[in-house]
Amino acid sequence: MHHISSLFNSIELYSNHNSFDIGIDHSTNNLWILNHLNFLDIQSYKIYYKKNTGYRQRESTKYPTRLLRKKFDKTRDLITYLMEKGYDIIYCEILFTNNWRFKLGTYVDMHFYTNSTQERNQLIIKLFSLQGSIVKNEVINELQTNIAYITDLEGKFKAISSLILPDEFWSEEDVDNWKKTTSLY
């Protein structure tokens, strides 16, 4: 039995103040969300996929992982192509011409990298509007970095725990200090 859930289930702001991770179940099935960024042109991308012919595919059939070599300049064209093909996306990273980046996480999250805190907040507001949530800029600015928050349909955030987790923008020294002071290690 399945329960009702919202499109996005968590958010974590990164320590560079320009980037964030948004929790979404079946992230590869929800790449259509990038169609809402169709105003952005693509500079480059790296997408690894496996062919999937669905229920007609035999269990013993194993397709190799391949790199998508076809070139796309427009976000909408890339998303349309991927939706039409029977691909299981293994890895996806896109660099847009305005220097925003997108990375597909491991099954349950998407990573967005913008150029400023203002752009980050505008993108968060836009994404949450897809699920009908009204998120205000002031609420986003109150969130602490490196703490995971769960979200609800009203656009409210609640910290999962007070544990601060390192992100990719932390220096090795900061990570080492974090390991020394955290009881997890």
Structure, described:
The chain has 185 residues and is of the alpha+beta class. The chain has one domain (10-181). The protein contains four helices and nine strands. A nine-stranded antiparallel sheet has the order 4-3-5-6-7-2-1-8-9, with helices on one face. The longest helix has 13 residues, at 117-129. The mean pLDDT is 87.
Total beta strands: 9
Quote the average pLDDT.
87
User: End-to-end distance, in Å?
Assistant: 38 Å
How much helical structure, as a percent, in the residues? 10-25%
Number of helices: 4
- N-to-C SSE string, H for helix and E for strand: EEEEHEEEHHEEH
Q: Report the uncertain regions.
A: none
What share of the residues does DSSP label as strand, in percent?
A: 15-25%
Rounded to an integer, what's the Rg over CA atoms? 18 Å
Describe the strand arrangement of the main beta sheet, using strand numbers: 4-3-5-6-7-2-1-8-9
Q: In one word, what is the shape?
A: globular
Largest sheet: 9 strands, antiparallel
Structural class: alpha+beta
Overall structural domain count: 1
